[in-house]
Amino acid sequence: MNTVDHGVRYLDLDGDGVPDAVLTVESQPMAQDDSRHLQPVSVVETLETGIGIDGCPSTTRVVTKH
Could you read off the pLDDT of 18-53 as tens digits, one per residue? Predict the structure, then answer.
């Protein structure tokens, strides 16, 4: 399988009812482990915060999990 699964969540970190952060989760192609169950090869989480009126974040944090 050569596709990437994406998930996007808009977060309201300060509770004002307006999203001010975006969390994007990407799962890389699946692989089989020894028990024949499909497992994600890696997951990349990108959190963008401090999004200004121009749509650009002031902070971007990327976490990769294997």
Answer: 888 999 999 877 666 666 666 667 889 999 999 888
* C-alpha to C-alpha distances, 2 to 17, 22, 45, nearest whole angstrom: 37, 25, 19
Q: What is the pTM of this model?
A: 0.70
Q: Which residues are CB-contacts of 59 (< 8 A; sequence separation ≥ 6)?
A: 48, 49, 50
22: amino acid identity, one letter: V
Read off the DSSP letter of residue 66.
-
Which of these, 27, 28, 22, 19, lies nearest to 9 by C-alpha position? Answer: 22
Pairing outcome for strands 43-49 and 38-40: unpaired
Strand residues in 1-66 grouped as ranges (E): 5-11, 21-27, 30-32, 38-40, 43-49, 59-65
Decide: 24 and 8 in contact? Cβ < 8 Å: yes
